[in-house]
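Translate sequence into structure tokens.
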Amino acid sequence: MINSKFFGAGVALTTPFHKYGTVDFTSLGALVEHVIAGGIDYIVALGTTSEAATLTEDERKAVLDFIIEYTNKRVPIVVGIGGNNTQQLIETFKHFDFEGIDAILSVTPYYNKPNQKGLYYHYKSLASISPLPIILYNVPGRTAVNMNAETTLKLAHEFSNIIGIKEASGNMMQIMNILKDKPKNFLTISGDDSLTDSIVSLGGAGVISVAANAYPAEFHHLVKAGLKKDFEKAHKINNSLLEFMEAIFEDGNPGGIKAALSVMGIMKNNLRLPLVKVNVPTFNKIKTFVEEYKSTLKQ
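Result follows.
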């Protein structure tokens, strides 16, 4: 069953850049190796954290091709393909080269602010032509529209190739309603690192994580413990990373996680405008955590 590929901890991979803005493929390879060695269960390429919105079409293709080649089928790969022009997105789905890809993560249409009926027909249109399973992505903090539980459940029950949702609304009542009434094999995936422990304990399938770029092993073990109902272990791992999870989002994503990865020596701390590096107090907070956490692991 393809759904089983996405139980566990996925990582929303960030994109390293050189000082003058070109993609740093050497560091991208190091990051892919880091997360796979840490036990990450699958990789999400070209998601929000990748700064895909600032990559050219050629760069997106080059980054995706590199990730596919470097991963070499060691873990499944999900590709982020979303937009606010349904017809254009349909054409993209029809002509995209999905070789080496296992599923599509598709964000709700942004800026247009469609109502629930519009959201339903948007995803219905994609599901009717998609060659791969679709994971819905609800992140109202970025899109200015929330897909409610009723719409998510309607899509989940009507389309077998809509296999899950990355839920980043932060609305636990909404998430619990999805968990309560979803089809058995439909995946409810946390889109908020800090809610992963709670969502998995309630029956969620795992997380698509930002923080796992830095700490893949911890998120793998956190989710694995939760799925096995070893909640004491899951809570312990979660609590050890709470400060980090808060700090990396303090000045926005992916600024925070890139700061952490730069301290860890995995990539340079470079972003593309309109994103900039986190403020100095935030960077120092992240740096202190990374260094102290490393010392703790050595004890």
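Note: Residues 10 and 159 are 23 Å apart (CA to CA).
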